[in-house]
Amino acid sequence: MNATIRVFDTKIDMFSRLGDVIENDLRTAVSKNGKASYVATGGSTVPPLLHNLSRKTLPWEHISVTLSDDRWVNPSQSNSNQNLIETNLLANNAAKTTLIPLWSDTQCAEQAADLAHESLSTMSLPFDVTLLGMGEDLHIASLLPNADGLKAAMAQNNERLVCTLTPNTDEGEKDKRLSLSLNALLHSRAIFIVITGAKKWHALSKALMQTNSLKYPACAIVQNKKSPVHIYWSKEA
């Protein structure tokens, strides 16, 4: 297992430190390779970090940004991760970066996934920085427990970068999801997972012990032996 855990008392301290680490990794990648790739995540936790990053004096014109996952909904909608990234990251100094979205205005989500796969293939691979959140149900990106399409997205022989999944929950949300596959997520030089509060800490403890990755998808990331995983936990929820 390649996971390390860093613990912070407050979210401000955590985001400050993580922002500095991501800045350094992206700067180093551009210096070595002339370009860098950053996989961003959505969710309510990350906007302060995105604001922080947007003000960094990085060579953003040489950095491409994509998303770990998104709903197959128009980016004008508030539950679109693309909307969140465009609003919170692609501003200030980071306005110069290139966003490679997962969503596209196609007849079906599967066509959007095909186009996203082609677009992401042009990025600097392995991804230089991949940022992820984690749900209390141990979903990661849109690798959702019991989702239709999860088994294919998690398959070791899956060569696709982007897959489609449909939530299978009692909450009623049925928006199709576009998600990087497990193999695509693990094809990263550094993976950062951000969690906050006691409930997420309990979920992380479970992810570090469980072995059924189809029931607990986050296990496949935090226990992987291929890519380094850096877990940042704030005690403050």
Helix and strand layout, with pairings?
Elements: E1 3-8, H1 11-33, E2 36-40, H2 47-54, E3 63-67, E4 69-71, H3 81-88, E5 98-99, H4 109-120, E6 129-132, H5 150-154, E7 162-165, E8 177-180, H6 182-186, E9 191-196, H7 197-207, H8 218-222, E10 229-234
Parallel strand pairs: 1-10, 2-3, 2-6, 3-5, 6-9, 9-10
Antiparallel strand pairs: 4-8, 7-8
Helix pairs in contact: 1-2
Structure description:
The structure is a single chain. With 237 residues, the chain is of the alpha/beta class. The chain has a single domain (3-234), classed as Rossmann fold (3-Layer(aba) Sandwich), CATH 3.40.50. Helices cover 32% and strands 19% of the residues. It contains eight helices and ten strands. It has helices spanning 11-33, 47-54, 81-88, 109-120, 150-154, 182-186, 197-207, 218-222; strands at residues 3-8, 36-40, 63-67, 69-71, 98-99, 129-132, 162-165, 177-180, 191-196, 229-234. The strands form two sheets. It has a seven-stranded parallel beta sheet with strand order 1-10-9-6-2-3-5. The chain has a three-stranded antiparallel beta sheet with strand order 4-8-7. Helix 2 (47-54) links the parallel strand 2 (36-40) and strand 3. Helix 1 (11-33) packs across helix 2. The longest helix has 23 residues, at 11-33. It is globular and about 45 Å long. The mean pLDDT is 96.
